[in-house]
Each structure stands twice: as structure tokens, then as C-alpha cells.
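Q: Convert this sequence to C-alpha cells.
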Amino acid sequence: MTPVALTVAGSDPTGGAGLQADLETFHRHDVYGMSVVTLLTVQNTRTVSSVDVLDASLVLKQLDAVRTDIPPQAAKTGALGNAAVIVQRGVKNVLVTGGQLDGAAVDVLWTDGVTRNLAAEQIRTQHTHGAGCVLSAAITARLAGGEDIVTAVTKAKRFITEAIRTGPGLGGGCGPVNMNGPVQS
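A:
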């Protein structure tokens, strides 16, 4: 059976973040990706000049349409736009990223009441557009593929570290990470 993942997120016309980056990352991890659009942006690597939030009823209709036909094994959210589209279920796992701190890039994962620190070298670059989207999409893809949360987060962190290291340097501002890097099995 083909693993299926869903992203509920905004659209980034540069492709570096949002649902475009999520779908690219799902594909890179051999997972079929679906998307529910929450908002549209006008942006490039230098600026975000406009954000149009979709009506919550349209977002929910999209969600119902995809879930009832092709149920995903895992889903992620990105930019939701407003409180009306947020799922009120709470969380079972929390990942706090620390790539912007001085020293090592230490992320903290809380799951099953246990806190784990996941460290990687910090890569100094301005080209980190979409890093959070790609990290969370890689985690989601791995969960859809059947990995447990700790393994999924650990391998996704390696993926995003390499994606930042090998960023293509596109654009005149904060350019995208490299979503086409190697994926560890």
C-alpha cells in the first residue's frame, strides 16, 4: 500500500515553503501527498506583500473531500490563517526547533512524557526559507510510512540539516533549502 500524507497549509508561489514544499518533500520520501489550501500569499525570497486567508468553510470542505476518498496515514499543518480552521484536539508530541540559537542546532522533542534533545551542527546561511515546512513534512512522510515518532524526527532532522547545507542559493533574499537531497532509509 502506498503511504499517503496530507498537508493543510498556505501556498507559497516561490515553492520554497508552504504546501508546495510539503508536497515536494512528501514526493522525495516516496509518499503520495495531498493538500488542503488555507491561504494564498504573494511573496518572494525578499518579502511577503499579501496574504489572503480562505474562508474556514472552504478549508473544511477540502479536508472532508480528501479524507473521505483517500485517507492519509499522517497529516501536518502549516500556516492556517485564523483560529476558525485550527483542529481542537491538542497534541501528543511537541518538537521545538533550535536552529536559530548560538552553538549547535538542538531541537527538543517531547513525546510520551519524555524529553529528547536532538543536536546537529548549526549551518550559518541566509537560505533557510521553508526549513520548518520541509522538516515537518519529512516527519509527516516518515510517519505515514510507518516509522515511530522518535525515528521519524531523528531522520527528518538529518534530512533538513543536509537540505540547509546544500541549499541552491536561489533568490536575492532568504532562499529555499534543498528538498532534493538524500533520504535515509
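The mean pLDDT is 94.
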